[in-house]
Write a structure and sequence with these properties.
By secondary structure, this protein is an alpha+beta fold. Helix content is about 40%, strand content about 20%.
């Protein structure tokens, strides 16, 4: 029997390696940016077409390469960063393994131009699917230019797995902004389909954050800088008011390398405990400087995970930094200080004796009875209203109970809609609003309870779907148009879903970079904050994993949840009648679009069981 184990051909091995390193166009962008940063570039320009599927070109003014280096860099495991095994445990550069360029060349058509300061002429190399087709001298600027064309041209299956252009470009923006935030001293540019997306000048971190996240303002950022024996940590934490309901603006850099670490993220977010809700995520951009020998960056192909030697102490430091930053922002006196003897001494210095006596008497009279009286009054008023509401319900029950007994047999099988129809004929006051949250009515089989907010969400959801599929909703023009500013990632999403939003009655137009103007809103929409409404729609779209397939449903659900009447809204009898009529006209009246029950029925048998005596 012949031997069956053999070495893979070089081009096959490179394509397999590319599957780990190059997952999408953004992976190419990350690797090229790392190389430009390592080359000590001060200017980096990224040009992308068709979300990187057609072209990814990166131009820098770094050190450049010699003709030999320009050819060798495309070989697998060729690197200038590692000379011995000891170097692996003290990595100070972004790239080091020598896999990226070889992997890129195996799945794309690549052109390289590079020139060093001391050279009179540069080098041009053309590679296609790991095959070097041309190498020659060429006139070029100092630095390096790499063009990656037709990514995955020789692996159609991999190319078919790529997402839509807007989705892939958002991933590119993420990689670009992370590199820009890690290196604010470098000038960065990003162009997409000949449109300028970013032009970031060299600055400090605060200005770089505001340039990238255009919805952030300097006064909303809390700066910190701490030095310890373990590490140095610096950066900015956003005030609680700018926390969002989605992740994505939580950035940690270790030695200028962006990392993903849930443990360290928890350390920072713990500082916001009892300040923001659990559904919110604060903004922060944190830079950690640590001895490279204390970390291992070689545990993941994309180098986004790091293993720390002293993880617990790093956690405690980050947690303390987070709390200290927020503690400086919230400077409120403790309650016991208000009645401290020293405070009364300061009162004597500032005021006369007569005024002091009046102040002291006020303090003596200050007790909990004052608050108890107010709370008791509120309780009595609420209890009185609740009693009146229940008496109204019992009145409805008494007026209709005698009429229903002789009307139908097999009442439990009678459809709810028909039971409601008969009930409405017998009583003009058949509906009752419980705590301004539920609509309660008596039906033949027992009791019907409707969640008014969930029911209205179902009604609006189906209405909006029809509007996007058939005809739009009329728009009501605003007397004073609203100008809103979004960060670049949200701007890209809004541009993507703008056609659907306009069908729902929104009149929104671009008004410069990262800025939009809202001229009109849906005629039936009553919402005081249009920007918050649109941001919620963007957030829900961002969180939806099947954006392309369920775009209309995602947008309709988002707007319905925002525009629906909320719990606590008082409704008239006519409004309750109309709500139920529209609910039972829906295709799926039992559940809201989010899956919450709209209707609950309690049969007479169930009610009877509840009142049975305990044995």
């Amino acid at each position: 029997m012949s031997d069956i184990i053999k070495l893979l051909p070089e081009h096959v091995a490179n394509q397999i390696a590319a599957g780990e390193v190059i997952q999408r166009p953004a992976s190419v962008v990350k690797e090229l940016l790392d190389n430009s940063i390592d080359a000590e570039s001060t200017e980096i320009k990224l040009i992308v077409k068709e979300a990187g599927k057609a072209l990814i070109q990166l131009i820098d003014n770094g050190k450049g390469m010699s003709p030999t280096d320009a050819r060798m860099c495309w070989e697998r495991h060729a690197t200038s960063k590692i000379n011995s095994i000891e170097d692996v445990f003290k990595i100070k550069t972004m790239g080091f393994r020598g896999e990226a360029l070889a992997s890129i060349a195996s799945v794309a058509k690549v052109e390289l131009k590079s020139k060093r300061q001391e050279d009179s002429i540069g080098t041009y190399i053309l590679i296609e699917g790991s095959n070097v087709l041309k190498q020659e001298a060429a006139a070029t600027n100092i630095g390096t230019s790499v063009s990656v064309k037709n990514l995955f041209f020789n692996i159609p299956a991999r190319r078919n797995f790529l997402k839509s252009n807007p989705v892939e470009f958002r991933h590119i923006v993420d990689e670009f902004t992370r590199a820009a935030l890690a290196n604010p001293q470098i000038n960065f540019e990003l162009w997409h389909n000949d449109d300028e997306i970013f032009k970031l000048k060299s600055s400090d971190l605060a200005y770089r954050i505001c340039d990238i996240f255009s919805d952030k303002k300097p006064e909303q950022l809390l700066h910190f800088e701490e030095e310890t024996t373990i590490m140095n940590v610096s950066g900015f934490i956003g005030i609680p008011a700018i926390a969002k309901k989605t992740r994505g603006e939580q950035l940690i850099f270790v030695n200028k390398r962006y990392i993903k670490d849930a443990y360290l993220n928890h350390a920072i977010i713990s500082g916001f405990e009892n300040i923001i809700s659990k559904e919110q995520f604060p903004f922060y951009c944190i830079h950690i400087e640590i001895d490279p020998s204390q970390i291992d960056v070689n545990i993941h192909p994309t180098k986004t995970e790091i293993k720390f030697e002293d993880e617990k102490n790093i956690y405690q430091i980050l947690r303390a930094v987070s709390r200290k930053s927020l503690g400086g922002f919230y400077t409120a006196p403790a309650m016991h200080d208000a009645f401290d003897d020293n405070n009364f001494m300061h009162v004597e210095l500032r005021k006369g004796a007569a005024q002091n006596q009046q102040d002291l008497q006020t303090v003596k009279n200050f007790n909990s009875n004052t608050f108890l009286t107010d709370e008791y009054s509120q309780y009595r008023n609420a209890n009185k209203q609740e009693k009146q509401n229940w008496e109204e319900l019992f009145k409805i029950a008494r007026n209709t109970n005698s009429q229903q007994k002789s009307q139908f047999n097999a009442e439990s099988d009678f459809p709810i809609q028909q039971q409601l129809s008969v009930q409405n004929e017998k009583s003009s006051q058949s509906f009752f609003q419980l705590h301004q949250t539920y609509i309660v009515t008596q039906i033949k089989s027992g009791l019907l309870v409707i969640d008014q907010q969930a029911a209205h969400e179902r009604i609006l959801f189906e209405k909006y779907l029809i509007a996007m599929q058939r005809q739009g909703i009329s728009s009501q023009q605003k007397l004073f148009p609203k100008v809103m500013t979004l960060n670049t990632a949200d701007e890209l999403i809004l541009q993507e879903i703008l056609p659907q939003i306009r069908l729902l009655g929104f009149d929104i137009n671009e008004f410069g970079k990262n800025t939009f103007v809202v001229n009109g809103v849906p005629a039936e929409l009553h919402h005081s904050n249009e920007q918050k409404l649109i941001e919620e729609m963007i957030l829900n779209f961002k969180n939806n994993k099947n954006q392309a397939e369920n775009r209309n449903e995602t947008i309709a659900l988002s707007l319905a949840s925002q525009a629906a009447i909320k719990s606590g809204t008082k409704l008239t009898t006519d409004e309750m009648n109309q709500l139920l009529d529209e609910l039972f006209a829906c295709n799926e009246p039992k559940y809201s679009p989010a899956g919450k029950a709209c209707i609950l029925t309690l049969s007479l048998d169930q009610l009877s069981t509840m009142f049975k005596p305990k044995r």
